[in-house]
Amino acid sequence: MASYSVYILYSRRLDRYYTGTTDNVARRLSEHNAGLYTGSYSVKGIPWELFYELSCPDGSTAYKIEGHIKRMRSRVYIENLKKHPEIGKVLLLRYGS
User: Fold this and answer.
1) How many CB atoms lie within 10 A of CB 96?
2) CATH of the domain at 45
3) DSSP string, 2-54
4) Helix (H, G, I), strand (E, B) or coil at 57
5) Average pLDDT, stretch 65-84?
């Protein structure tokens, strides 16, 4: 069983965050910065840097947490995820399979 992570990237160019889910954060960051996804939003923000990562036990949990973060639509919430690690623990308990 592969482990998954919810990741949040930051672009200084756009001063914006990008949230996603993957089974390999380093590879995914490299793909974003290589412009692999032409026409996608992430191409506009190159270079991206890893801002936050939350390891999840499975893909289902990771996708639920990603959706939760996106529904919050809040820069402050995203920044609080990094400042307050207990938020990630609560999300894992709430959305864990």
Assistant:
1) 13
2) 3.40.1440
3) --EEEEEEEETTTTEEEEEEES-HHHHHHHHHTT-STTSGGGGGPSEEEEEEE
4) coil
5) 98
CA distances from residue 21 to 13, 15, 17, 39 in whole angstroms, order as listed: 22, 20, 14, 19
Cα–Cα distance measured from residue 7 to residue 4, given in angstroms and rounded to the nearest whole number: 10
Number of domains in the chain: 1
**Residue 78 tokens, joined:** 């995203």
Q: How many CB atoms lie within 10 A of CB 10?
A: 20
Which tens digit of pLDDT belongs to each residue from 27-51? 999 999 998 878 888 899 999 999 9
**Residue-range definition of the domain harbouring residue 51:** 4-95
Q: What percent of the chain is predicted at pLDDT more than 90?
A: 89
Q: Tell me how crowded residue 40 is: count the other CB atoms within 10 A of its CB.
A: 12
- Tell me how long the chain is: 97
